[in-house]
Amino acid sequence: MSLHVIVGAGPVGSATARLLAAHGEQVRLITRSGSGPQSGVGGSRPSDGGFARGGGEAGVGGIECVAADASDAEVLSRHTEGAVALYSCAGPAYHRWPTDWPPMGAALVRTAEVSGAVLVTTANLYGYGEVDGPMTEETPLRPNSVKGQVRAKLWEDALAAHEAGRIRTAEVRGSDYLGARTVSPFSVMVLPKVLTGGRGSMPADLDAPHSWTYVGDVARTLIAVAADESTWGRPWHVPTPEAMSVRALATRAAELAGAPVARVSKMPAVALRLAGLFNRDAREMIETQYQRQRPFVLDSTAATVALGIEPTSTDEALRETIDGIRTQSAT
After folding, report:
1. Which domain holds residue 306?
2. Exposure check for the chain: N or C terminus, fewer CB within 10 A?
C-alpha cells in the first residue's frame, strides 16, 4: 500500500481519491477546509480490477482528509513526505486564476522536488487557444485568453523542472466535464431546465461538435499516468467519446431522463455581456467564448492506445450527471 496525496476535493479529486482507496491505496486528500468526497458521487463505473480499464466505487473510508493551504510549499511538502504520487486536482475560483494559480503551481513543483513524488496535474484545453481542427497533445500552446495563459505557464514551469531533472511530472487534459457535481455552462444553464421541461439557453453554436469528458475517466487517466514512468514528461488527453453538439447532448439527456423533448435556444452574445456587468461568472465566460462558437474537439487517441483506457459512454456520463442534479435538487 502506497501513499497518494491529492490536492482538491472537487469532482476530479474526489473521484480519484475513491478510486485509489477502492484499490487499497493509502489516500491523503488536502483541501483548505479539510472536507472530503461525498460517498457515491463520481467515478462510479464498476471496477474490473485495474486502474486503466476499471473504475470502482468506494465510500469515504480509507481516505484521510487534511486541512492545509496547498500554496504553502513547506506545509504541502510535510503532508506529501513518503508519497509516491501527488495529484493536482484543485481549482481556484474562476476569477482568481491569475492570482491563485501561480503560487499553488510553484508550491506543487517544489513539493514534488522535495518529496520525490511524481506530480500529475489535472488541466484543460485553454492553453491551446483557438484552433482549426481537433486538438491533440502535439497541438502547440497558443493561448488567446488570460486563463489560457495561466494554464500554459503552469505546464511550462512544471515541464522545465522535469527536463532539468528536479521533478517528474505529466499533465492530464480534458474538455468540459460530465458527471455528478461537475460544473460547466451546459450543466448549469441547459441541463437543469431540460430536466424540468423548461427551455435551456446557452451562449454557443448549438450545433457545433463539442467534446465532453467524463470525470471518472479523468481520475482513471491520472492514476494510470502516475503509475507508468514511460508516460511522464508530456501531456495526455483524457479518453473522451465522439464529440456531440449542445443540442444533441440536451436531446439525449431528455430521453435518458424521461423528460419532455429538449428545448434549447442560443443566448445572444450581447446578453452574456450585459449579464457580465452584474454577474461575475458570466463576465468570466466572455474570454473563452471561442470554445463554444465553433467546433471544439479533443482527440484522445494517444491515451487510449498507450494506457488502454476506453472512454465511458456519453449516455453513462449523462445518467450520472442527471442523477447528481436530481439529488441536489431534492436536498
Report:
1. 3-179+213-240+298-311
2. C
Is the per-residue pLDDT at 271 higher than 60? yes
Residue 153 belongs to a domain: yes
CA-based torsion, 95, 98, 103, 106: positive or negative:
positive
- In sequence order, the β-bridge partners of residue 235 are 171
Look at residue 35 in the predicted model and tell me its pLDDT.
85
278 belongs to a structural domain: no
Query: Distances from the Cα of 171 to the Cαs of 162, 221, 331, in angstroms?
Result: 12, 10, 36
Residue 323 within a domain? no
Beta bridge partners of 265: 201
CATH code at position 115 = 3.40.50.720
Please give the average per-residue pLDDT across 206-210, as a whole number. 98
CB 59 within 8 A of CB 35: no
Task: Mark 154-191 as b/e (b = at least 16 C-beta within 10 Å).
Answer: bbebbbebbeeeebbbbbbbbbbbbbbbbebbbbebbb
Helix axes 246-257, 314-330, angle to 10 degrees: 60
Asked if pLDDT for residue 282 goes beyond 90, the answer is: no
CA dist 278 and 202 (Å) reads 17
Mean pLDDT of the chain: 91
Which is nearest to 195 in space by CA: 262, 107, 102? Answer: 262
- Burial class from Cβ neighbours inside 10 Å (0-12, 13-18, 19+) for residue 201 reads middle
Task: Name the nearest CA neighbour of 3 among 69, 79, 89.
Answer: 79
Instruction: Give pLDDT tens digits for 124-151.
Output: 999 999 999 999 999 999 999 999 999 9
Q: How confident is the model at residue 53 (pLDDT cuts 50, 70, 90)?
A: very low
Query: Who has greater pLDDT, 284 or 235?
Result: 235
In the DSSP assignment, the letter for residue 173 is E
- Number of domains observed in the structure of the chain: 1
Q: Burial level of 53, CB count in 10 A (0-12/13-18/19+)? A: middle
Q: Is residue 235 part of a domain?
A: yes
